[in-house]
Amino acid sequence: MTARPPGARGRALHCPRCGALNGSDFDRCIRCGAQFSAPAPYAAQVRGILDGRSLLATKILGALTSFVFVGQLLAARAQGFGPLARWDRSNYLRFGALRIEPGEPFEPFRLLSAVFVHIDVLHFGMNMLSLGLLARAAEPAVGSARFAIAYVLTGLFGFAASAAWNLFVQPELMYTAGASGAVFGVLGLLLGWLLRRRDPRWKDLALQAAFYIVLFGFVVNAFSNEIRINNAAHLGGLVSGVLLGLSYAGPARGRYEGVVNLGALASVLACVAVLALAQRSPAWRAAEPRGRLSQLEAPPRGERPEGRPRPAPAIEGRRIGPVATTGPDGS
Predict the structure, then answer these.
(1) Membrane spanning segments where (predicted)?
(2) What CATH fold (topology level) applies to the domain 56-319?
(3) Which tens digits make up the pLDDT trace of 227-239?
(4) Where in the chain is the domain with CATH 1.20.1540.10?
């Protein structure tokens, strides 16, 4: 038997050829007889770190989102806004919010960077709380690497669905951002996983998903002028999450671990890259106010400078009209 690294004993080892589970002290696969290479025990240690029980992916993604939000707070303070105020839209664009306007240049990297941007403290807190609650069940089930890939892809697909809706179905100007599309993706991931494994709990989870979509989507949009929920992003994230959950729970579970781990690393690096691109984009500099209340100089409500009607834009959970904040007297 080959020497094992400290802590490797007791962890299951997947055969790289057939995917069968083996003891960590086995030299050959009990199913196909393939001999494990010397680095295999160390690979088992890596798998132990990425098995999902430590919620490593959730911590990394949550930390990146928190880092962006702190940057937003500091930028808002530099503009003269408090942490509870409605910030200028240049703040959202600077950190990666998605701007959708038919006929205007489109920056595709914002489909991903928008996942890490939030419009205020409440928006940030609700999404991070929801992510933490769902990730406790989802990440240990699929593993940290697959969870990271799923979070990034569902957030991306959610905003892609939102962009498609606002460009082709209901063309209008829209600013949108937030992690809730990816959070719905995690909910869909759990739903697909349980469904594929014929776990009866998928029915309760499906009812919860339907309840949240109806309550926080269509009902809020129907009765509120101040809050506008991005239903397209939520549905896009949920559907793509279900598909990934169905895939993850299949018989190939345990295979291609190296490729999956590299994919997770690439996903996290892509998140960092798109956030850097947002900082370098000229879009937020063009929208930056000249002074603390300069956004009050916006065109009259419902009009654009060219005189064309201007639909009220939205930023995932909240509506942002042509005037981003109120004056000193609250008017």
Answers:
(1) 56-75, 111-135, 147-168, 174-193, 205-223, 229-246, 258-278
(2) Rhomboid-like fold (1.20.1540)
(3) 678 999 999 999 9
(4) 56-319
